[in-house]
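One thing: mind reviewing this one?
=====
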Amino acid sequence: MRIEILSECDSSTIEKVHEAFDRLLPQLSSSARPLSREEIQKLLAQECLHLVCALDEDDRILGMLSLVVFDIPTGRRAWVEDVVTDQAARGQGVGQSLVNAAVEHARELGAKTVDLTSRPTREAANRLYRRVGFLQRETNVYRKSF
């Protein structure tokens, strides 16, 4: 397994990434809709977004996450979202490799912190985040949906 960090998607990579999104997004969220190739390219064209991918020896994406790095008045921060490992590859260290690579990339980009959230029912994910050094914070998360 190897890790690649994509910040843009050229024509040679778009098919592989599109196939991965089609396969992995339903495993991540039942409400996620399929993304077109154009939507994926637009997503990756954002300067703040880095798609961290784990690939097998056949260049198939086994898992991915989104790392968002942004500047605010208190410094450069990073946020991890949409962590997903293919059901067939779970338990093989894919998630840990993805998270570790994202944390290291955020550090290299000058982020002071890396944050993420995870529902309590995602027990394996929560164990992983604690195992790689994330600390649970006492905070409230608020959301306003549109």
